[in-house]
Amino acid sequence: MPSLPERKVGIVACSGEELAEGTVTRLAALKVLHEIRRGETVTICLPLFLAGGEGDRAFAKFHPTITVDGCARKCAAHGTETYSGKPAASIVVGEIAAEHGIAGIEGRRCLNPAGQKAVDLTAERLAALVDQLLGKEERPDAGASVETPAASSDSAVVGCSCGSGIPVKVLTIAGQSVEVVALPLIFDKLREARRVPSEAVAQDLLEMVKVYNYVCPETEASWREVLVREFAAYCERELSR
Amino acid sequence: MPEFLATTVDKFTFRVATDRLYCRDGLWVFWIQPQGGVRVRVGLTDYLQQHSGDVAFVTVKPPGTKLQVGDDLADLETIKVVLELASPVSGVIVAVNDALELNPELVNQSPYEKGWLAEIDATDWEAGRSSLLDAKAYFEVMQSQAQEELKKL
Amino acid sequence: MNDGKPQVVIVPCSGIGKAFGSVAREAGYELCDELRPNTTRLVALSKLVLGDEQARERVRRCPAITIDGCKLMCAAKLVKHNGGTVAREVAVLDAYRQHKELKPDGIAELNAEGKQLARVLAEEIAEVVDDLGRDASGGGNHA
Questions:
Q1: Is there a contact between B57 and B39 (Cβ–Cβ < 8 Å)?
Q2: Which residues on chain A are in Cβ contact (under 8 Å) with B7?
Q3: Residue C119: what are its φ and ψ, rounded to 5°?
Q4: Residues A146 and A91: beta-carbon distance below 8 Å
């Protein structure tokens, strides 16, 4: 069984060649990757969703992604949703530029000062969203909504559809069937730490689950209740082995 | 087709074929046939090829070259690094993979099969093989190496 | 100004994980902005991922030259996926093998060798563009 992987955020930039804003997306993504959120992010090549790149696809299925587009066509956002999964957040350079009163982004090969400013602002926005997705901040208004991952109607422990081998468990929470990524591994980890089902472990369990799954704040109580019940059942099974 | 052990780090999945031996530096040794001595085939592991990047040039020492463990077996240049690959066994090179001359990317595309580097008639094989790792042991070494690389990010 | 010759579509991969993707992008700009602005047209690969109708129409109507940074050949695959004809598949790695002294480095900012490799590549592709123009017009000289 694979070990619990470190949670990271994938960034999918459109890199559109025809517009200077496409260059902004590319440079902003690279700035986040190499400088301001180094080690916490991975860039994903958009065309690889269609042209191969099993690793990129698998990563995007398991980890949350942020798409960054140069124009309102939103090729990265729509392409990611079509060929991988719904991005956790999507931003558009033009909208960020408009918010900050930046006009006249030019120079698709070599950005002008307005374009360079847009790179910095877009990178900052991406970094804020990365922090939000990694649970490093209380959800500030980072200018993009964070979406719930899709649920499945299966009812057993299965491998994540990303092909990474990460197991998922399907639970019914607040009346919804939800695919909880990495839950079996989280249970293993708690058992190794000799934790037993309790109110204290319920909160820790929820926090660990939130690292790998989106939990709507309104349903946290239901999640906690179901998770601790499942953990108790898991512990009983392990004891009887 | 060999079976594999596999681990995923970020968007990279590294595979280790279970049917051969390994050195810690990331070369595999596959025993192909006993023929008066022991003939083995040598190549790069999946981890080493992915870690090194797209291969641009490969130069393998020619057939007839006598090698001791650690001698220069091949030079390999990728978009990221230049590697001098040390032989994991002692012996004489009896064949090199000519396909790499035109298609060095075979090392990336098929590290455990079509991308092999050389065939060697190994000498002192019993002593040599004891210093090599089996797939499970190499898998653990490789996982540590991958995690170390991750920390550098 | 297009003097009536059919335009050649240029599709670089712009891969974001390796310097070779940046070389592909830079070569695309060098070709379309500097060397053959009148007979080439850059098409964003992201539009082909999305299946943008205008981009699809363009690659179906005009011959395409793709410039790929790695052997997964995303640009070539996506032109074909969208019904286009790839007149020439260019791989940056092959170009580097021909010009070993020009080793690219840097993704956000290519080094001097990478930029030079892009220029060399663009010059080579410009000749292919000229050939395609000659073929289409029955054999005239490129201006």
A1: no
A2: 2
A3: -65, -45
A4: no
